[in-house]
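Explain the record.
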Amino acid sequence: MNETPRWLEAEEKAAWDSFIRMQETLIGRLSRLLQADSGMSASDYIVLVSLTGTSEGRMRLLELANRVNWEKSRMSHQVRRMAKRGLVAREECPDDARGAFVVATPAGYKAIEDAAPLHVEHVRRLFVDALTPNQLSTFARLSQRVSDHMEKQPD
């Protein structure tokens, strides 16, 4: 069963190439700025934003991995590195001996509180300010449409 590939048309390829270039450049620049401003990696930041965004500053490890769309093993390694630096702690789950909570520590809260204002300013300067409000709304709808479409597709 050797199907002919559905090669991208010129306009499709241009859209794809432009998206990849923008995404790689934006994420790379934001990651470098975050590291320079706060000493925090983008992975540290996403974990702390997720944890501190909850009312208790804690989540089950698997729930946290699912929220940021990472494999459980990647999250475990990230949490281990962050715990060594005192940004998070692991707590056993009293209801499930195999489960664990990841908890933002006071140092983790301080790190995210210090990093977030500068990071948001960089996001605004590099992304939000490049678009009109109407373009931003369209971009959000298109991004959600692609995300919804991917959810329906097999891996």
Remarks:
- The domain at 37-152 is CATH 1.10.10.10 (Arc Repressor Mutant, subunit A).
